Amino acid sequence: MSLRFYDTATAQVRDFVPLKPGEVSLYYCGATVQGRPHVGHIRSAIVFDQLTRWLEFRGYRVTTVRNVTDIDDKILAKSAESMGLEVPSGEDVIPNEPWWALAYRFEQAFAKAYDTLGVQRPTYEPRATGHIPEMHALISRLIEAGHAYPALDGSGDVYFDVRSWEAYGSLTRQNIDDMQAAPDAGPRGKRDPRDFALWKGHKEGEPETAAWDSPWGRGRPGWHLECSAMATKYLGAQFDIHGGGLDLRFPHHENEMAQSQAAGDGFANYWMHNGMVTFEGEKMSKSIGNTVSPAQMLAEASPRVVRYYLGQAHYRSVLDYRPTSLQEAASAVERIDGFIAKAHLKTYGPGDYAFIVDTHGSIPPAFGEAMDDDLNVPQALAVLHETVRAGNTALAQDDAEAVKAALHSALAMTGVLGLDAVQQPAMQGGPEHGALDALVQAQLEERRSARAAKDWARADAIRDSLAAAGITVEDSADGATWSLA
To answer: Which of 239, 287, 369, 438 is most buried when burial is the number of CB atoms within 10 A of its CB?
Structure first.
């Protein structure tokens, strides 16, 4: 089976044919850094990380761009809230924090969450504020082509004329007359209430540092314009895939596509959107108190478990969170890791995972077929768990060759899914693991001696001590293994 992905623009699954043989160009929307990451941000990042890893596995050289929106109405509003404060007034509010400091602080919070959950750094991660000249150039092209105009009220705003572009609404298959007014600026200076802002003139009360000189007066870019300018800066006028959360299809991606194509750029060849995260079937909302943050998840479960949970559903489906979701994910991860630990001990003996897995040779064909078919991760995980079951059967039958084959397959599949990027320290090499393993092995050796001497109280005390430190000990015919609980 060839690679196939669902394309939002055509509403069908299409064979994937890159613009350049052997290369893939991917842009997906990153964060508007006015606050800490929510679970939807992280799910989207994991989805496109899985996509990138699979494309690389299939032999493509992938150039990935994920933007940072570091200038925005919400960022300015949150900074304004902090001005004049002597003490914090709410969650994540620091007194007298400039907008640029606030944006950078939350950008770092996103980076930490991505890193913790094994999301690979993109090839490029541009900030909006670093690409003002490219935005000016794009606006000028649109004005010259008759698709944009300076505001009629002298405010310094510049708008995209949606009625000048016949294809407007095609991404989301909407009729322009059925659309609501664009909420990014008042209608006073617009030809049509649906026209959206490309450039926002500087307003009284806004920080002077949040404005740049332009041919239309001092101001700042509109949200939609930023992504078009950055995507084409790094990937060219036409590129392979544009991705993001389903909530970005309209107006953000509709507006991106319209302004880019109206300026003469082919822009994205495929549009891919991941589904939302709900709470027991309901949309998450702070106002009704049914939200769960990545930080809360990480307080309840290991990064490996959180990544498994957020990445287990088909990317286009809704991922529903329930109070038992992380426990279920933890049980699944425990089954995988338990087999890997026992199979490694059986095949290679105690010590680090210091061997090379032939990833391509070890991936079961059914796994590859699932991933090729619109990134069907649930089916791919089913293959992984079937491999683990078969491996455990081989362990019980003392079939060393079958154990080794299942071990290599399991490691190859977890690697492709990015689960190896957040492996437990007990399953990694490096000085941290070496030090921890040496300490635990010393305790396990003392426990073995106690058991040999029938000093069951001492053996149990060692096990309890390790458990209190978050270390699980599992006994088998081949000896004791350990993992982080």
So the answer is: 239
Count how many Cα atoms sit within 13 Å of the Cα of residue 431 in the half-sphere of its side chain: 0
Contacts of 207 (CB under 8 A, 6+ apart): 76, 79, 98, 99
Q: Which residues contact 198 (CB under 8 A, 6 or more apart)?
A: 135, 138, 139, 142, 148, 158, 159, 160, 221, 222, 224, 225, 259
| Number of CB atoms found within 10 A of residue 400's CB | 13
User: SS3 helix, strand, coil % of the chain, rounded to 5?
Assistant: 50, 15, 35
- What is the C-alpha to C-alpha distance for residues 106 and 34, in angstroms, rounded to an integer? 7
CA neighbor of 255 nearest in space, from 168, 129, 152: 168
With contact defined as beta carbons under 8 Å apart, do 343 and 400 qualify? no
pTM: 0.87
Contact at 8 Å (CB) between 114 and 45? Answer: yes
- Give per-10-residue mean pLDDT for the chain (485 aa): 94 98 98 93 97 97 98 94 78 89 96 96 98 98 98 93 97 95 87 96 94 97 96 98 97 98 98 95 80 91 96 97 95 94 87 65 94 98 98 96 95 93 53 60 79 85 82 72 66
Mean pLDDT for the chain overall: 91
pLDDT tens-digit readout, 437-467: 667 777 887 887 888 788 888 888 888 888 8
Whole-angstrom distance, CA of residue 146 vs CA of residue 239: 25
Tokens 């000189």 sit at which residue? 213
- What would the two tokens of residue 12 be? 């069908």
Alpha helices in 129-275 (DSSP H): 132-144, 223-235, 254-262
Map tokens 């027991």 to a residue. Answer: 280
Strands (E), 183-291: 196-201, 219-221, 238-245, 267-274, 277-279, 282-283
Position 426 scores a pLDDT of: 42
pLDDT at 188: 82
Give the chain's length.
485
DSSP letters, 8-36, are: TTTTEEEE---SBTTEEEEEE---B-SS-
Burial of 175 (0-12, 13-18, 19+ CB in 10 A): exposed
Task: Supply the Cα-derived Rg of the chain in whole angstroms.
Answer: 26
CA distance 179 to 302: 44
State how far the Cα of 401 lies from the Cα of 197, in Å rounded to an integer: 64
Distance CA 232, CA 142 (A): 15
The pLDDT value recorded for residue 425 is 44
Q: H-type helices in 264-324, by residue range?
A: 294-300, 303-311
DSSP SS3 for 76: helix
Euclidean distance between the first and final Cα of the chain, in Å?
39
* Residue 300: HSE in the Cβ half-sphere, 13 Å Cα cutoff: 17
